[in-house]
Amino acid sequence: MSSPSYHTSILCKYYLIISLVATFFMLFFFNLTYISSQYVDSSIFTMKCEEAGPKETTANLSHLMFVLVGSSRAWKHRRTYIESWWRPNATRGNIFLDVEPSEEFRPWSPTFPPFKVNEDLRKLRIYPKLANRVHIRIYRSILETYRLKQDDGVRWYVTGDDDSVFFVDNMVDVLSKYDHTEKHYIGMFSETIKSNFHFSFDMAFGGGGYALSYPLVEALVEELDNCIERYHYIWAVDHLQSLCLADLGVDLSLEKGFHQMDLYGDISGFLSSQPTAPLVSLHHFETVTPLFPGMDRPGSVNHIMKAANVDQSRMLQQSICHVRASNWTFSVSWGYSVHIYEKIFPRSYLKLPIETFRPWWHGGPPPFYMFNTRPVSRDPCEAPHWFFFVSIEQEKEGVVTSYKRKFPRNMTSCSFSGNTSADPLTTIRVFSSKTPKPGRKVECCDVEYEGANVAYMRLRDCRRHEIIA
């Protein structure tokens, strides 16, 4: 069947021909002087041809279908992660479990995504040969979602685990850059080299989530079980997915805001220097220490979402400014932390994460990561004073986030700066605009400090050719 735009194009051509013929007829059969003396409304011959049908709306949250996977046994410990970002009656999707949830969760809370139990894999003829039956169950959740016929208006499928946290407003903004009528596979590889080496450098890691445009979903579900048979020996579901999509002619488009978080331990150094890209997801909370000192893992996730619920566009976005009189450098990771260095450092250096964390795969010589890092230092000129996010306030003229020192630095001051210590500071207040920050734009800042225990930072647009150094 021909598309509406095709018929519209034909009609436009007919209108043009008719207009030309009519003009010729008038010029040929009527007195030209008479015609020139009359007012001929040019709009008679002006045909405005528009696309048939209603104009397409801007992307919004209702266009995303979340395909979340987990297990009933782990739900008790992981439900808080999904609850932190799920918006009842706004987000669409389901959580797929291996078996029915326990009576402890009956009736099912409306703050959870609706649950579905995956189909029995034993019906598949390839079942005895499957290398990883758990991962195949997870993979087929895409097919089972499609068969639910809940896709009215859906433009994207977004996959994730029960311990994935999504920043859905940023997700919408990121996906809006792509033509959802084309086939797209969008995500990010692992942070660690060995994870990518063992599986693939060309696949999105599903814990951090990935997005499939709806035309790609339609193509995939027709071949999904056939692809499982073709690659039954593949162990990891994300690797399998990349192979299936490659065979459909679609490769991965990278977006740096998806985070698999294949890291161990304290990830504060990473979160304080997140790439300049909208934060889309975080994962693997149970293998890292709580995001904030003095909190447990669920509590720390709920805490960071307090900032995210006000302004996701600035989440973990780094802004750097200097106090020349004291030789201090301030670096804020919005909604998470502020660092103060007792020395002037350029942005080119501070954008490198402090290696407070360890790689997912232990052992062997470096390099470990897909990005450059800087070491943890005991040099008072290199080690920052750490302040962590405590509160957020919405005021008439903007948004104010506050950060407090959680532990003393326990170092002498940097002699390079003339022994000007930042130890007296206990609180940093950061002022930002209510206007969302464009995706990859870097904001600059100014600092107001008069020698008390509080410093004030104000984020702003960088001046033309401003040097952050």
Quick synopsis:
Pfam families: DUF604. Keywords: Membrane, Transmembrane, Transmembrane helix. The protein has 12 helices and 19 strands.
Characteristics:
469 residues, alpha/beta, Spore Coat Polysaccharide Biosynthesis Protein SpsA, Chain A, 3 domains, eight-stranded mixed beta sheet, seven-stranded mixed beta sheet, 12 helices, 21% strand, disordered N terminus, transmembrane, transmembrane helix, DUF604, membrane
Work out the count of structural domains: 3
Q: What value does the Rg take, in angstroms?
A: 28 Å
State the CATH class of the largest domain.
Answer: Alpha Beta
Q: For the record, give the distance between the C-alpha atoms at the N and C termini, rounded to a whole number.
A: 60 Å
What CATH architecture label of the largest domain applies? Alpha-Beta Complex
Please outline the major beta sheet. Answer: 8 strands, mixed
Q: Extract low-pLDDT stretches.
A: 1-53
What's the helical proportion of residues? 25-40%
The percentage of residues in β strands lies in 15-25%
Task: Please state the average pLDDT score.
Answer: 90
Q: What structural class do the secondary elements suggest?
A: alpha/beta
Strand segment tally: 19
Assembly status: single chain
Largest sheet, order of strands side by side?
Answer: 11-12-13-15-16-17-19-18
State the shape. elongated
Q: CATH topology of the largest domain, which one?
A: Spore Coat Polysaccharide Biosynthesis Protein SpsA, Chain A
Count of helical stretches? 12
Keywords: Membrane, Transmembrane, Transmembrane helix
InterPro entries: DUF604
Transmembrane segments: 12-35
Pfam families: DUF604
